[in-house]
Amino acid sequence: MEKKYMERLIGQYCKIVTKEPGEDRASVVSGTLEDVDYKDGFILVDSSQGLGCLRIDTIIAIKPGNKRKKEQNLHDDEKAMVGIGTLIIFIAMTLVAAIAASILVQTAETLQQRAYAVGKQTIREVSSGMKVIDQTGYTNTNRTKLQYLALSVKLRAGSYDIDLTETLLYISYDNLTVLTHTNVSGLNADGASNDGIFHTLNHSALNATVYGTIATHDSDDSVTANYGMSTDDTVIFMINLTAAFEETEGLPPGESFIIRLVPEVGNAGSYLVEAPMVFEHRVVQL
User: Fold this and answer.
1) Are domains 3-64 and 127-285 of this chain identical in fold?
2) How confident is the model at residue 80 (pLDDT cuts 50, 70, 90)?
3) Domain boundary assignment for the chain
4) HSE-up of 161 (CA within 13 Å, CB side)?
5) Domain 127-285 listed as CATH 1.10.10
6) pLDDT for 71
7) Is 50 exceeded by the pLDDT of residue 159?
8) Residue of 51, 62, 150, 201 with fewest CB within 10 Å of its CB?
9) Does the global pTM surpass 0.85?
Protein backbone atom coordinates (compact mmCIF):
# COMPACT_ATOMS: atom_id res chain seq x y z
CA MET A 1 0.00 0.00 0.00
CA GLU A 2 1.59 3.29 -1.09
CA LYS A 3 1.87 6.15 1.38
CA LYS A 4 0.13 8.75 -0.77
CA TYR A 5 -3.13 6.82 -0.79
CA MET A 6 -3.24 6.35 2.98
CA GLU A 7 -3.20 10.10 3.67
CA ARG A 8 -6.22 10.71 1.41
CA LEU A 9 -8.41 8.43 3.52
CA ILE A 10 -7.78 10.08 6.89
CA GLY A 11 -11.11 11.00 8.51
CA GLN A 12 -13.17 8.69 6.27
CA TYR A 13 -15.09 5.58 7.18
CA CYS A 14 -13.38 2.63 5.55
CA LYS A 15 -13.34 -1.10 5.28
CA ILE A 16 -9.77 -2.28 5.84
CA VAL A 17 -8.71 -5.73 4.66
CA THR A 18 -5.68 -7.11 6.52
CA LYS A 19 -3.73 -10.37 6.37
CA GLU A 20 -1.13 -11.35 8.88
CA PRO A 21 2.00 -13.13 7.65
CA GLY A 22 1.58 -16.90 7.74
CA GLU A 23 -2.24 -16.73 7.77
CA ASP A 24 -4.35 -18.08 4.91
CA ARG A 25 -7.47 -15.96 5.50
CA ALA A 26 -7.80 -12.19 5.51
CA SER A 27 -9.90 -10.18 8.01
CA VAL A 28 -11.94 -7.02 7.62
CA VAL A 29 -12.00 -4.08 10.05
CA SER A 30 -14.58 -1.28 9.60
CA GLY A 31 -14.04 2.10 11.14
CA THR A 32 -12.87 5.68 10.71
CA LEU A 33 -9.25 6.17 9.73
CA GLU A 34 -8.00 8.64 12.31
CA ASP A 35 -4.26 8.90 11.58
CA VAL A 36 -1.35 7.32 9.66
CA ASP A 37 2.07 6.85 11.27
CA TYR A 38 4.48 6.11 8.49
CA LYS A 39 7.46 6.24 10.81
CA ASP A 40 6.33 3.39 13.03
CA GLY A 41 4.26 1.73 10.34
CA PHE A 42 0.78 1.89 11.97
CA ILE A 43 -2.60 3.41 11.24
CA LEU A 44 -5.08 4.52 13.89
CA VAL A 45 -8.68 3.22 13.37
CA ASP A 46 -11.83 4.12 15.38
CA SER A 47 -14.10 1.09 15.02
CA SER A 48 -17.18 -0.19 16.85
CA GLN A 49 -14.80 -2.05 19.16
CA GLY A 50 -12.97 1.14 20.05
CA LEU A 51 -9.79 2.94 19.03
CA GLY A 52 -7.05 0.61 17.75
CA CYS A 53 -3.94 0.32 15.60
CA LEU A 54 -3.24 -1.75 12.52
CA ARG A 55 0.14 -2.46 11.00
CA ILE A 56 0.53 -0.91 7.56
CA ASP A 57 2.44 -3.85 6.16
CA THR A 58 -0.54 -6.17 6.91
CA ILE A 59 -3.06 -4.06 4.98
CA ILE A 60 -4.08 -5.58 1.67
CA ALA A 61 -6.80 -3.09 0.67
CA ILE A 62 -8.80 -0.14 1.98
CA LYS A 63 -12.28 0.67 0.67
CA PRO A 64 -14.02 3.95 1.69
CA GLY A 65 -17.69 3.59 2.59
CA ASN A 66 -20.64 5.29 4.32
CA LYS A 67 -20.39 5.66 8.03
CA ARG A 68 -23.03 3.63 9.87
CA LYS A 69 -24.95 5.05 12.76
CA LYS A 70 -23.50 3.82 15.95
CA GLU A 71 -25.82 1.89 18.15
CA GLN A 72 -26.71 3.69 21.31
CA ASN A 73 -25.78 1.57 24.23
CA LEU A 74 -28.13 2.11 27.12
CA HIS A 75 -27.13 1.39 30.62
CA ASP A 76 -29.18 -1.07 32.61
CA ASP A 77 -30.78 1.66 34.66
CA GLU A 78 -31.83 3.57 31.52
CA LYS A 79 -33.46 0.45 30.11
CA ALA A 80 -35.28 -0.03 33.40
CA MET A 81 -36.61 3.52 33.27
CA VAL A 82 -37.96 2.97 29.76
CA GLY A 83 -39.57 -0.30 30.87
CA ILE A 84 -41.23 1.32 33.90
CA GLY A 85 -42.59 4.14 31.73
CA THR A 86 -44.03 1.66 29.27
CA LEU A 87 -45.54 -0.33 32.12
CA ILE A 88 -47.13 2.81 33.62
CA ILE A 89 -48.66 3.72 30.26
CA PHE A 90 -49.96 0.18 29.82
CA ILE A 91 -51.50 0.14 33.30
CA ALA A 92 -53.07 3.56 32.71
CA MET A 93 -54.60 2.40 29.42
CA THR A 94 -55.88 -0.76 31.10
CA LEU A 95 -57.45 1.25 33.93
CA VAL A 96 -59.08 3.67 31.49
CA ALA A 97 -60.48 0.76 29.47
CA ALA A 98 -61.74 -0.95 32.63
CA ILE A 99 -63.42 2.24 33.88
CA ALA A 100 -65.00 2.86 30.47
CA ALA A 101 -66.24 -0.73 30.33
CA SER A 102 -67.63 -0.44 33.86
CA ILE A 103 -69.48 2.76 32.97
CA LEU A 104 -70.91 1.16 29.83
CA VAL A 105 -72.05 -1.91 31.78
CA GLN A 106 -73.66 0.22 34.51
CA THR A 107 -75.33 2.45 31.94
CA ALA A 108 -76.65 -0.56 30.03
CA GLU A 109 -77.94 -2.13 33.24
CA THR A 110 -79.62 1.12 34.29
CA LEU A 111 -81.24 1.50 30.88
CA GLN A 112 -82.38 -2.12 30.98
CA GLN A 113 -83.98 -1.70 34.39
CA ARG A 114 -85.57 1.57 33.32
CA ALA A 115 -86.89 0.03 30.10
CA TYR A 116 -88.30 -2.92 32.05
CA ALA A 117 -90.03 -0.60 34.54
CA VAL A 118 -91.42 1.64 31.79
CA GLY A 119 -92.57 -1.38 29.78
CA LYS A 120 -94.27 -2.92 32.78
CA GLN A 121 -95.96 0.36 33.69
CA THR A 122 -97.06 0.88 30.07
CA ILE A 123 -98.56 -2.61 29.90
CA ARG A 124 -100.36 -1.98 33.15
CA GLU A 125 -101.67 1.38 31.95
CA VAL A 126 -102.91 -0.08 28.67
CA SER A 127 -104.39 -3.33 29.93
CA SER A 128 -105.85 -2.24 33.28
CA GLY A 129 -109.26 -0.64 33.63
CA MET A 130 -112.95 -1.15 34.38
CA LYS A 131 -115.96 -1.77 32.22
CA VAL A 132 -119.65 -1.25 32.93
CA ILE A 133 -121.72 -4.35 32.16
CA ASP A 134 -125.13 -3.09 33.33
CA GLN A 135 -126.94 0.17 34.21
CA THR A 136 -130.07 0.26 36.34
CA GLY A 137 -131.97 3.25 37.70
CA TYR A 138 -134.44 3.70 40.54
CA THR A 139 -137.12 6.40 40.40
CA ASN A 140 -138.96 8.37 43.04
CA THR A 141 -142.47 7.39 44.14
CA ASN A 142 -144.16 9.38 41.37
CA ARG A 143 -141.74 7.98 38.78
CA THR A 144 -140.78 11.44 37.55
CA LYS A 145 -137.05 11.40 38.37
CA LEU A 146 -134.28 8.85 38.63
CA GLN A 147 -133.08 9.05 42.23
CA TYR A 148 -130.38 6.34 42.25
CA LEU A 149 -128.13 4.73 39.67
CA ALA A 150 -126.57 1.26 39.98
CA LEU A 151 -123.58 0.44 37.76
CA SER A 152 -122.44 -3.18 37.56
CA VAL A 153 -118.67 -3.07 37.05
CA LYS A 154 -116.03 -5.66 36.19
CA LEU A 155 -112.35 -5.43 35.35
CA ARG A 156 -111.20 -5.64 31.75
CA ALA A 157 -109.56 -8.84 30.52
CA GLY A 158 -105.93 -8.99 31.64
CA SER A 159 -106.33 -6.07 34.04
CA TYR A 160 -104.31 -5.77 37.20
CA ASP A 161 -106.09 -5.53 40.55
CA ILE A 162 -107.64 -2.12 41.24
CA ASP A 163 -108.00 -0.34 44.55
CA LEU A 164 -111.54 1.02 44.92
CA THR A 165 -110.43 3.58 47.49
CA GLU A 166 -108.37 5.22 44.71
CA THR A 167 -111.08 4.98 42.04
CA LEU A 168 -113.00 8.13 41.12
CA LEU A 169 -116.36 8.63 39.42
CA TYR A 170 -116.78 11.74 37.26
CA ILE A 171 -120.38 12.77 36.47
CA SER A 172 -120.88 15.46 33.84
CA TYR A 173 -124.41 16.88 33.68
CA ASP A 174 -125.10 20.55 34.40
CA ASN A 175 -121.92 20.60 36.48
CA LEU A 176 -118.96 18.28 36.91
CA THR A 177 -119.33 16.13 40.03
CA VAL A 178 -116.57 13.94 41.42
CA LEU A 179 -117.44 11.00 43.68
CA THR A 180 -115.01 8.95 45.73
CA HIS A 181 -115.17 5.65 47.57
CA THR A 182 -115.51 5.62 51.34
CA ASN A 183 -115.37 2.92 54.00
CA VAL A 184 -118.19 4.50 56.01
CA SER A 185 -120.44 1.88 57.59
CA GLY A 186 -123.57 1.27 55.53
CA LEU A 187 -122.01 2.26 52.19
CA ASN A 188 -120.32 -1.09 51.46
CA ALA A 189 -122.06 -4.43 51.45
CA ASP A 190 -121.18 -8.04 50.73
CA GLY A 191 -124.07 -8.97 48.47
CA ALA A 192 -127.53 -7.48 48.03
CA SER A 193 -130.28 -7.69 50.64
CA ASN A 194 -133.57 -9.52 50.15
CA ASP A 195 -135.27 -6.19 49.39
CA GLY A 196 -133.03 -5.62 46.34
CA ILE A 197 -129.90 -3.67 45.57
CA PHE A 198 -131.58 -0.27 45.96
CA HIS A 199 -132.51 -1.11 49.55
CA THR A 200 -129.18 -2.63 50.59
CA LEU A 201 -127.12 0.45 51.42
CA ASN A 202 -127.84 3.28 53.82
CA HIS A 203 -129.35 5.90 51.51
CA SER A 204 -128.93 8.67 54.05
CA ALA A 205 -125.14 8.17 53.93
CA LEU A 206 -125.00 8.49 50.14
CA ASN A 207 -124.42 12.09 49.08
CA ALA A 208 -123.01 14.14 46.22
CA THR A 209 -119.37 13.29 46.99
CA VAL A 210 -119.34 9.54 47.71
CA TYR A 211 -120.58 6.35 46.08
CA GLY A 212 -121.38 3.02 47.69
CA THR A 213 -120.40 -0.51 46.66
CA ILE A 214 -122.16 -3.87 46.71
CA ALA A 215 -119.97 -6.92 46.07
CA THR A 216 -122.18 -9.27 44.03
CA HIS A 217 -119.31 -11.63 43.22
CA ASP A 218 -116.32 -11.68 45.54
CA SER A 219 -114.97 -15.22 45.88
CA ASP A 220 -111.69 -14.21 47.53
CA ASP A 221 -113.28 -11.51 49.76
CA SER A 222 -110.87 -8.94 48.33
CA VAL A 223 -113.59 -6.32 47.91
CA THR A 224 -115.09 -6.64 51.38
CA ALA A 225 -111.74 -7.15 53.14
CA ASN A 226 -109.57 -4.40 51.62
CA TYR A 227 -111.68 -2.83 48.83
CA GLY A 228 -109.55 -4.35 46.06
CA MET A 229 -111.13 -5.63 42.85
CA SER A 230 -109.61 -8.63 41.08
CA THR A 231 -110.40 -10.07 37.67
CA ASP A 232 -113.24 -12.36 38.80
CA ASP A 233 -115.01 -9.79 41.00
CA THR A 234 -118.22 -7.98 40.14
CA VAL A 235 -119.19 -4.85 42.06
CA ILE A 236 -122.22 -2.56 41.87
CA PHE A 237 -121.47 1.15 42.28
CA MET A 238 -124.43 2.95 43.86
CA ILE A 239 -124.82 6.67 43.06
CA ASN A 240 -127.29 9.11 44.62
CA LEU A 241 -128.50 11.15 41.61
CA THR A 242 -130.79 13.29 43.75
CA ALA A 243 -127.75 14.59 45.68
CA ALA A 244 -125.50 14.76 42.62
CA PHE A 245 -128.08 16.66 40.52
CA GLU A 246 -129.23 19.01 43.20
CA GLU A 247 -130.97 21.51 40.89
CA THR A 248 -133.20 18.94 39.23
CA GLU A 249 -133.32 16.59 42.26
CA GLY A 250 -132.51 13.65 40.02
CA LEU A 251 -132.42 12.77 36.34
CA PRO A 252 -135.61 13.67 34.41
CA PRO A 253 -137.01 11.39 31.65
CA GLY A 254 -135.21 11.64 28.32
CA GLU A 255 -132.14 13.29 29.85
CA SER A 256 -128.63 11.85 29.68
CA PHE A 257 -125.21 12.43 31.17
CA ILE A 258 -121.63 11.12 30.88
CA ILE A 259 -120.02 9.10 33.63
CA ARG A 260 -116.29 8.28 33.74
CA LEU A 261 -114.60 5.56 35.79
CA VAL A 262 -111.03 6.60 36.62
CA PRO A 263 -108.95 3.97 38.46
CA GLU A 264 -105.63 4.74 40.11
CA VAL A 265 -103.78 2.82 37.40
CA GLY A 266 -105.09 2.05 33.93
CA ASN A 267 -107.35 3.54 31.31
CA ALA A 268 -110.41 5.55 32.24
CA GLY A 269 -113.75 4.46 30.78
CA SER A 270 -116.49 6.84 29.62
CA TYR A 271 -120.12 5.73 29.49
CA LEU A 272 -123.38 7.38 28.47
CA VAL A 273 -126.31 7.09 30.90
CA GLU A 274 -129.58 7.92 29.13
CA ALA A 275 -132.98 7.88 30.80
CA PRO A 276 -136.02 6.64 28.78
CA MET A 277 -138.82 9.03 27.92
CA VAL A 278 -141.28 7.26 30.26
CA PHE A 279 -140.60 5.45 33.55
CA GLU A 280 -143.00 2.53 33.48
CA HIS A 281 -141.66 1.07 36.73
CA ARG A 282 -139.57 2.32 39.61
CA VAL A 283 -136.68 0.05 38.59
CA VAL A 284 -135.59 1.17 35.14
CA GLN A 285 -133.14 -0.62 32.86
CA LEU A 286 -130.93 1.97 31.16
Assistant:
1) no
2) low
3) 3-64, 127-285
4) 11
5) no
6) 45
7) yes
8) 51
9) no
